[in-house]
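EI: anyone free to look at a 342-residue chain?
SC: sure, send it
EI:
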Amino acid sequence: MFTLSCLLTIGSLPALNFCHEISIESAWAKFTDTAVITLPRKVKVVGSGQLPDLISVGDAVTIQYGYDGQLRTEFTGYVSELKPGTPFQVKCEDQMWALKRLALPSKSWRSVTLHELLVYIRDQSGLSFDIRELGGLTVGKYQINQATGAQVFDDLKKRFGLNCFFRQGVLVAGQPYDAATATTHRYGFRQNIIDSDLAYTQATDVALHFRATSTDPSTGKKIQVDASGVVKTKKAKGDTTALVTALSAGLAKGELRTLIGPPGLTASQLLAWVQQEAARLQFDGYRGGLTSFGVPLAEHGDIATISDPDYPERAGAYYIDAVTKTFGVNGSRRKLKLGPKA
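SC: here you go
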């Protein structure tokens, strides 16, 4: 039988090896990972005082837990809010919390790469973290005007479709999936899947209509492609300057999905990218999520292989979009939300 173990480091407090419950929400699309630590209120720290009085907003937080003393760091960040009461809750956010609070010095570039921009944000914020860029990209002409690092990340997502998020303390920028480095975890019905809302669907059951844009980093002009085969070239403000047609290669019509493609694509390159996205989002396979135990140690961006002894032909591999981790008196669980096929 496995025994649960934990170690919580909060500010200058002595490390705590107990809790009532820990809940961690981790998803690349959410921008910021969050954690809630639930503790007994009437706990005194020898020589210091009661626990709630010893924790402050902004305190650094590290959450480690596992089985039989084998601890793994599941969350790092800062205290973002204190919720007094019985029990006592400590709400936390990952490193993005610090990047939301400090305005960066104004600066403009005639042309800047994504990596150079991320290094500037990190260094000017006075923080220390590794940067992992998934695909070398040039942002082009760019200006920061008294914005925080988090606001710059939000702008990059809106303008260029670039995702910036922390994964295990590392700032990841670009697309959220990388098959070359993703860890694969195995899940099976009647094995380690405790519960699920998984539904197996055919690609033909999901009717989607795609519309995508790509921005030229040097000029600010946008190219737009949709499933009807129309390609529009427009200025950043949206004024149409040209109209050409292109083949849509049979992309399905249906529910509209608006996508932002990588910057600097030509019309034909953007059309090819839309076709790849269509194939990624329209597939025969499982959709939904599952709940498993504290292991496997899945994180978003990893790959989950799903098997069912009753339907072996449905076996497949999927990227993980989100993970909800819980630990405490009711055990350790990981709830996964599946994304596209890997």
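EI: The chain has four domains: 4-94, 99-174, 187-202+285-341, 205-281.
SC: 👍
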